[in-house]
Design brief:
three-stranded mixed sheet, nine-stranded mixed sheet, 7 helices, alpha/beta
Length: 270
Amino acid sequence: MYNYEDYGSENTYEENAYDEGVYRKVDRPKKKRKKKNYLLRFLITVLVIGGAFAFSFSSFFLIENVTADGNQYYTDEEVMHMAGADKGVNLIWDVDKSELTDALLESPYFAEVKVRRKLPKTLHFEITERHQIAAVVYGEEYIVIDKEGTILRKSDLDPKVTLLTGLTVSKLSTGSRIEAEEDVTLETTLNMLDTMEDGDIYFKKIDVSRVIIKAYIYDTLIVKGTPKQMTKAIKSGDLQKVVNNLLKNDTTRGTISLGNQNYMSFSPEF
């Protein structure tokens, strides 16, 4: 026979056991967090920065060398003195790049200047220099200019560049562009001179008083034509060939006349 009381008691026990299993709290081991010492890290950072700052004032960074690139007219030593740069001063704290740049740009010969610190002991200048290409004869003076007509300097002595004569000059200010009544002819002549430098030919003097200019290879050997015609003849190499053939035959007197469509003729002078 079944004892219902016993059965009921057993069933109650199982239900209680189930209930206890559902709501039993399980204890898990807690992870231990490491304490970060922020104060120590801060102090170390301060010491490193402070040490580096103090080291920057040391003799390790005193300037021993001043160098320059791109300068042709002025030597490295002249660039240093014009800029007001000194050796023996601190490269990091005693160098004002803006002041050095402004000092050099006072010279018309310098078109662009960049100042570089080359740690630990070198101050370096990167220079874009204007190149003197011609001189305008003005009274007893020579006004030296670059390919853009910028006046670089005035001189009482022949600067040994192509001389331009016949200009009616209206503005002469060092560092500014020269202005003349024959402005269009001057502009095209300067373009021709720029081509001349790359074309292995040299004119000692050019008369630009007229549209048809006269370019003197020698005092007695002349090339006549417009600046554009001369530019084209130089770029093609045709003018150089004619001049070289004349010189091979010891012909140094006469006139080479240029025309349109690559026309070229020579009139000897006896």
